[in-house]
Design a protein that fits this description.
The chain is an alpha/beta fold and 257 residues long. The protein is built from ten helices and twelve strands.
Length: 257
Amino acid sequence: MLELYDTALTSRLLLGSARYPSPAVLTAAVRAARAQVVTVSLRRESAGERAGQGFWSLVRELGVRVLPNTAGCHSVKEAVTTAHMAREVFATPWIKLEVIGEDDTLQPDVFGLTEAARILCAEGFQVFPYTTEDLVVAERLLEAGCRVLMPWGAPIGSGRGLNNLYGLRALRAHFPGVPLIIDAGLGVPSHAAQALELGFDAVLINTAVAQAKDPVQMAAAFAQAVEAGAAACAAGPIEARDLASPSTPVIGTAFRG
């Protein structure tokens, strides 16, 4: 069971809603993923009034929890304003907070992020910050009032997987009681399984599903990978070794003198 801001979820796979070929494919992918949380960008989806209304209807019909995000925001003011608009539209205190600092990698501006998080938490928002694996930044976000962290695996849409295993392991070890969701950069189901095996609580996938040749089949594959990774973590994986360790006992076996 995954608990995010006192909301209990059975699925550890969160799904983005951007870049799907059609609303019908998005609907089928969400169902195949068995996702209970779907992220939406207010700035993108509300660009056209009719299109926006149709999208909101689709999300409501899916019966999922909506996690609005501040995608595309490059300043504290822009992110805070977008969060307020999202809370009014969706009637939810949840907000996935993005403050982008670098255009080529879409790396978070961690200084603006912590400032925006402090403002929004003080105003009653339940903030899901898109951040890096930096331990100091994580501590500042928690001090600001965040109860969930969403570190990147790799740059958004890159499909590179978990770029900094050392940093992500350190983050998990330093904050054992904080829900950590890998957000951005995962490309294939094995990346998601690896994240859960490392002890992360969930993953958020968008591009890897939406831009696959068969988004619905890929969504189902990610759902299976997340379940496998979580089960493996719970089972207690063996430690990696530098030398071989025979799986068959050698004591008592015959050998030539």
